[in-house]
Amino acid sequence: MKQLRLTARFLCLGFTVGILLPPIAFLISHHVSLITPQAVRAAAGTATFTGTSQELTGDITAGRLVDQANTAYYIDPAASGNSLVTAGTASVSGNLVLNAGSTIGTTNMQPLTIGSATTGLTTVTSGGKLQLQAGGTGTGSTGTGGIYFLDSSGTSRGRFDTTIGSGIDQNFGSGSDGAITVTATKNINTDIIGASRLTYADGIAYRVIAPSSSSTSVSRYSGSDTISNGIAANDEVLLINLQGTNGDSADVGNYEFMKVSSVTVSTITFPKAITKTFAGTTASNQKVIVQRVPQYTNVTLSSSGSLTASVWEALATTPTGAAGYLTSIVAFRATGTVTVGSGTSITANSLGYRGGSTYADSGSYPRNGAGGEAFCGAGGTPSGGAGAGGAAYMDGTGGVGYCGGGGNSANGSASLGGAGGASWSGGGAGYGTFGGGGKNNTNATNGANGGTNSSGNGGTAGGGGGGTYGTATLSSLFLGSGGGKGSADYRFNSNSGNGGKGGGIIFIAGNTVTVSGSITSNGAAGENYSSGISISGGGGGGSGGSVLIVSGASTLGTSLVSSSGGTGGAGTDNSNPTIYFGGDGGSGRIRVEYTGSLSGTTSPAASTATSISSGVQSSLYTNYGTLYIGSTNTGSSDLAEYYMSGDKTIEAGDVVTISQKSKVKSQNGEDVDTKGVLMKADKPYDAKLIGIISTNPGVLMGSIDGENKEDKRMLALAGRVPVKIDPDSPPIETGDFLTSSSKPGLAEKATKPGYVVGRALESWQPGGADRIEAFLQLTYYLGDIDPWGNFRTLEVDTLKVNKTLEVGGVNVLDEINNLKKRLEILENRP
User: How confident is the prediction for the chain on average, in pLDDT?
Assistant: First the structure.
């Protein structure tokens, strides 16, 4: 095959990026080969090449570049720094082939027209896909966010608007839970807050078995839980891994927002597959939950209102009443305003991982403080655990922490928490910043502070501080870690201070967020020693938790949003009550993403972004645009919509009703709690008839691209569809009304008044086909009526007449009364 090969960057009239076509025309119809180190220039005319093996290098400028006979044209973008410049009209009569990574475009991506009088834009290689991209985000009939369809004269005949979605805000949700005003303390895990919530908490949560990536469902962890209590189809849930174990915690912090397509007593099904990993090395090691994300319009906190969650207790408390599991997570969306008034709060203070609160029995003296809890497990003992370092007493060993700090006589590392010292105070927990080591005011060696992704070593004064973990962007969400417990002198019944709890998790997505009160997820202070006449150490402070705010505009005030660590508690050596101090907890993490404006400061300083990351956008949003056209013409004839099916045998042509049950069976045999569930009609003239299952709809609604539609069916709403016929039906003529029969899903001719589903568009005789074409018409059939509106035959079970009943011009009620009088006369004769 002959070809022209250009080892040059392609530039046409200022059009850049690989190769650019209009408005220049490259007429290439013959393989040309010209090898030259010099620029080829024909400033006012045409450069014509007729050779068979030419390679052009350097700059080429021509009014027209012509190859007389070749049918293929190749661009090689590898030769950077060179360009092909033409000043005329360009056309390619053969194939235009671009290497991978090349782009057809114009300078500054100005409008580009590609096509010809006879052909449109098509893909060149098999297995590829054609993509059209709008030039901007402008809305409206002339906006840059549209892709326009033009006729031959250039008049717009249709538009696909890429800026308009499903009516559900991409970042702030659906608003389906309405507005709330909080004037007292409300717990999103346990309280009914929104007006639309009648039985279960707004942010009810359930523990689930850690799902595998690409799964489209999650299942309850405990067989005694009913996860359809409080969670329904079209809800949004937060799926998050809250804790793993030592050596199996890589998936902790992973989270996704998921839309619920259906829910049973044991399973929640999603329309799309889970994309992140949650199962770790061993799924049973993971504490994974789903928590309903309320969809408010406006959220207002006034008076002494406070919105909070339940303290973390490692999912030990099972659901009861309105509450689910206790997660320490406050999460919601609001399509309008989130107003945190003066004196009010949204808080997750001290709700996170627990501080060390027990003694680790090791060595000769069993008063060694346990390490605090963190994302890889419960509080440390001498042989395992997590969190900030516990302190040791004399020859004992403090509790080891594996992912936020820890303590024993070994050295700390990224995987092994900070080491506890010989005595006395617990180390502070780390998260966004490191925790401080236990310390004293004498010449003893303080426990080392934690570091970046590594924890500090213990000293003679106390346990090592916890290290940092997680990311500033909060692409993973963690609770704050707990501080280590101090040690105590067992001989004098001394009691050291417990470690402080970490902060919880707050997620707020609101169009406008205004804070005059506070939004906080602070760690708790380590406790002071409580009793004894000898040496007792103070507890280490807990670290701050996670605060993630997504908004159009945020006014945050001055340090009203915080995720600070708790201070270390005070200890004593009897003679000096303030000599030993637990390490201070590190701060948590704050992230603010916004699309409009941001004012104010946070403590610590927030990581910010001027766009909303896809990972926190609403899963309820349908990210497809809107098509504007004058009319449509489809080969199929009916309009249909997806509905949930309560019977896996329902298929095209079946006559269906709305189920009267609040729960129906899914395909896996479990109860489904959802709205508009279809069942086969199984009695004549069923009053709950809703339609016929479509075979091949011309227009189909209610579908989400990529969702699992296993339990859904296409219900015809209008038009004509095939319908199954009961073989025992009376003969059917064109125009006859059709109703449900006693055989599930089948239609028959209507012969008396009652509810019908459509009219026959063709005749049918017993022994004929199993289905006929029907026009969908849900109505009440009055019976056999002549052309003047008179009943030919009226068959009813009971006839009640309040005024006059005439038959053939005769008043039937008068005749009955006359008959009664005659009977009375006859009865009274002697």
Answer: 77
